[in-house]
Amino acid sequence: MTAPAEATRTDPQNPAPSNGWMHPNNSPLAHWFDGTRVLCGRSIPAGTKVVNTDPHADVKKCLKCSAAVAKLHPAAPANATPGPAPTLPS
Q1: pLDDT per residue over 21-80, tens digit each?
Q2: Measured on CA atoms in the order 43, 45, 50, 51, is the torsion positive or negative?
Q3: Is 19 exposed, middle or buried (0-12, 13-18, 19+ CB in 10 A)?
Q4: How far apart are CA 15 and CA 74, in angstroms?
Q5: 16 pLDDT exceeds 80?
Q6: φ/ψ of residue 49, rounded to 5
Q7: Which of 35, 41, 58, 69 is deepest in the core (most CB within 10 A)?
């Protein structure tokens, strides 16, 4: 048997996000997918899509995933404003 002369390529033009919030099995709580697994350890059925890639999105979140994301992606304090760069004494 021989392969067809021209193999079809399946490179997507816009690949799906590799991490973000998803709802496995239509869960009411969002779970953070890091590209390989959900941080809380819940099983994920094949084909579950990431619905939001913002780590600080305003969605109803799994407590374990939310705590893990807070460690991985700490939010800047609300009152944080960029100021002048500190100078070192000479």
Answers
A1: 999 988 999 999 998 899 999 998 988 999 999 988 899 999 999 999 989 888 755 554
A2: negative
A3: middle
A4: 26
A5: no
A6: -100, 145
A7: 69
